[in-house]
Specification:
This protein is an alpha/beta fold. The chain contains 26 helices and 21 strands. The strands form six sheets. Strands 3-2-4-5-6-8-9 form a seven-stranded mixed beta sheet, sandwiched between helices. Strands 15-16-18-17 form a four-stranded mixed beta sheet, with helices on both faces. A three-stranded parallel beta sheet has the order 10-13-14, with no helix packed on it. It is globular, with a radius of gyration of 27 Å. The longest helix has 17 residues, at 443-459. The structure holds iron/sulfur cluster (SF4). The site of iron/sulfur cluster (SF4) has 8 residues, from loops. Iron/sulfur cluster is lined by residues 213, 215, 217, 220, 222-223, 262, 296.
Length: 688
């Protein structure tokens, strides 16, 4: 029997940009994407004709679908929520088969035959809006408003939409819409009140200032040719929108602003936006942190913009690989090593940490080239080097059959960190396909690279920022030091060795031959409980790095100093050994972040520390050219924790990420330095 759409009337539409909440909130960004969709549709079709309700929480959205029986349910599909989105549409169809279900977003194949299979496998999706969603969604909703038969609508091609013809089972794909040139055609969802319910301190405001990316990195969905031209929101629109947001966010100074541009800071126009943001910082003392991907070019402009923003924004120094052959294949351009080093030096001069991401294993990368790249990054003095396993996103060149065959890319499936849940009795898991070996890097070599990366990631964090200072003074190469510590850990003789082995074991065990095998395993109640209690299913690098800081900070510090002493050898000057020992004691006393967090709600912590060197003065000397040994004098320190600040950080963190301390601290450390959890040092008396 034909499914009938009622004649023209006010349509009730429920939109979802869904996040799993069972394992603790992971994505805490306001859902501006669906805000733009609703805002544009209202502008085109009349706000009086459309009744929108926007959701991020799956249970609340399901309840609303069941309670109100809407005309349309639409969801955005990203790699972190595509299964959840599909489940919600399924529940909508079970509630009422006449609800029209629409999905949109980047998690959709590029080629027609794959699109057909994708939609055939998901019969609950009546339509898929591909490429920019605003125009295709509004166009389709306009047709639905006119009334008609759903089956007929699915047989007809609509611009920017794909569907399956119910009679033939074939793909029906409309022509793509031309790119929107002036983004101001999308009215602000903030100014129109669509985002109001998320201004409660639990969510970070987010927006685009520009859309498009001129680069063509083959591992990235944004490299598609249709996305190449860059379009902008005007500066006056941004000023209005950001002013509105900042006024509301002034009461949540620790909540960041997310800018979704692919290359923020790279364009001349971004200088104007920086001035607008700076005026807001001066007036509202917000934003104080940014989640932003900065441009892959015009680095000096980005540095200038950072300065305007009080250096609260940092620059992405991600390189993905430093192997020239690999870079050619993935069509990635990095700054030359000397430019990278000078950028990093400038960022550090301003007291900001630098982070660089690398992807492993990429085509033509070998174990040797990976380690050589790591050496370059360590020598460039990048603070945090974060290795990611190569993800094979739908619709990217690197995931194409040609690329898989050419480079013998071996893939496995794993759960996206903490992206799972149970909704209306259905367990749901987000799964990613990752590459774990190629014809130039075996799986065992991949594991070795990951193992080294864990140790280097821990050591390159601010938590151990004194170590490079020692290495520099003592003439020890930082890469050699990292390898030395790694070898000690791998020997199995250190206190950290168990943590390292657990990490490798989990890295092996998180991989499955198929999505189905993973789903079957975790659907079992006992295994599902392991996910619920955080025993497994988290981002391994983040989990073990945080574990090292929270549970093993003393052992890790001792290990680092042991490595330095052993590398120096027996002939070293006793004065150097004594000064290193003083520094080690000071680091242990001030940076035990596990203790500081656990005791933050108790009475004031204050300990006394007597040292023969003024390590704190040495560490704090901003233009430090003097060796630690020249700070020889007896000092008496009072070490106390900044309880109020730590409690505020943890309160904000728990509100955003839940009560699991390890997970919350791990997430906080993405945007805030570990220094926030350290003790302060006060000179009690100068020594005798
Ligand atoms: S990785 Fe960044 S620069 Fe490269 S295509 Fe994607 S968004 Fe553009």
């Amino acid at each position: 029997m034909a499914e009938l759409i009622k004649p023209k009337r006010k349509l009730k539409i429920i939109l979802g940009d869904l996040r799993h909440t069972v394992g603790g909130k992971s994505i805490v960004i306001m859902p501006v994407g669906i805000g733009y969709i609703a805002s544009y549709a209202r502008a085109q079709l009349g706000a009086e004709n459309l009744d929108f309700n926007l959701f991020v929480e799956p249970d609340a959205m399901i309840e609303e679908i069941k309670r109100t029986n809407p005309d349309i349910v639409a969801v955005s599909n990203y790699c972190w929520n595509a299964e959840l989105s599909g489940l919600i549409l399924k529940i909508a169809k079970e509630t009422n088969p006449n609800i029209i279900c629409i999905a949109g977003g980047p998690d959709f194949p590029l080629k027609d035959e794959r699109r057909q299979k994708y939609l055939q496998d998901r019969s609950q999706m009546d339509f898929y809006a591909y490429q920019e969603g605003e125009m295709s969604f509004a166009n389709l909703v306009g047709k639905i408003m006119e009334g008609g038969d759903l089956a007929d609508l699915k047989r007809e091609p609509h611009e920017g939409m794909a569907s399956i013809d119910p009679l033939t089972g074939e793909l029906v794909a409309g022509q793509p819409y031309p790119r929107m040139k002036n983004l101001d055609n999308i009215p602000s969802p903030y100014l129109s009140g669509l985002m109001e319910k998320w201004f409660d301190g639990h969510y970070a405001p987010s927006l685009e200032t520009a859309r498009g990316c001129p680069f063509t990195c083959t591992f990235c969905e944004a490299a598609a040719s249709w996305y190449t031209p860059v379009s902008y929101f005007s500066s006056s629109r941004m000023e209005q929108e950001l002013g509105f947001i900042a006024e509301r966010m002034a009461q949540y100074p620790n909540v960041l602003l997310a800018i979704h541009d692919s290359n923020f800071g790279m364009y001349k126009r971004d200088e104007e936006l920086a001035q607008i943001l700076r005026a807001l910082q001066d007036k509202y003392e917000w934003p104080n942190a940014f989640e932003v991907t900065t441009g892959k070019g015009n680095y000096d402009r980005i540095l200038d913009i950072m300065a305007v923003l009080k250096n609260k924004m940092t620059m992405s120094t991600s390189v993905q690989s430093l192997n020239p052959d690999t870079l050619k294949i993935i069509e990635r351009r990095n700054p030359p090593p000397d430019k990278l080093a000078s950028i990093v030096a400038e960022i550090k001069r301003r007291g900001i940490s630098t982070v660089s991401e690398i992807i492993l294993p990429l085509p033509l990368e070998t174990k040797e080239s990976f380690f050589a790249g790591f050496r370059t990054l360590l020598n460039a003095k990048i603070d945090q080097i974060l290795p990611f396993t190569t993800m094979l996103f739908k619709g990217t060149d690197i995931a194409s059959n040609e690329s898989r065959q050419k480079y013998a890319m071996e893939s496995k499936f794993r759960l996206l960190p903490r992206q799972f849940g149970e909704y209306s009795g259905h367990k749901c898991f987000e799964i990613e396909e990752v590459c774990i070996a190629t014809n130039t890097m075996s799986f065992e070599e991949y594991l070795e690279c990951r193992g080294f990366s864990l140790i280097a990631t821990i050591l390159s964090n601010d938590q151990f920022d004194v170590i490079p200072r020692h290495l520099n003074e003592l003439g020890i190469d930082i890469y050699d030091f990292n390898i030395y510590v790694w070898d000690l850990v791998r020997s199995g003789e250190t206190k950290i060795s168990d943590l390292y082995l657990d990490y490798l074991k989990e890295t092996r065990e998180e991989l499955w031959d198929s999505s189905q095998a993973l789903i079957e395993y975790y659907t079992n109640e006992d295994n599902y409980r392991k996910l619920l209690f955080g025993e497994t299913g988290d981002n391994k690098l983040r989990k073990y790095r945080t574990k090292a800081f929270l549970e093993q900070s003393e052992a890790m510090t001792e290990l680092a100093y042991t490595a330095i002493r052993q590398m120096l050898g027996e002939k070293t000057d006793q004065e150097i050994i004594n000064s290193l020992s003083a520094a080690e004691k000071w680091v242990i006393a001030t940076r035990h972040i596990g203790n500081n967090i656990n005791n933050a709600s108790h009475d004031e912590i204050s300990t006394e520390l007597y040292l023969p060197y003024d390590v704190s003065a040495w560490y704090n000397a901003t233009t430090n050219t003097s060796l630690l040994t020249t700070y020889s004098k007896s000092v008496h320190y009072k070490i106390y924790s900044n309880k109020k600040h730590i409690m505020q950080m943890m309160e904000d963190g728990k509100r955003l990420f839940g009560n699991n301390i390890s997970f919350t601290v791990g997430k906080l450390l993405i945007n805030f330095s570990v220094k926030s959890f350290w003790c302060k040092t006060e000179l009690a008396t100068e020594g005798c």
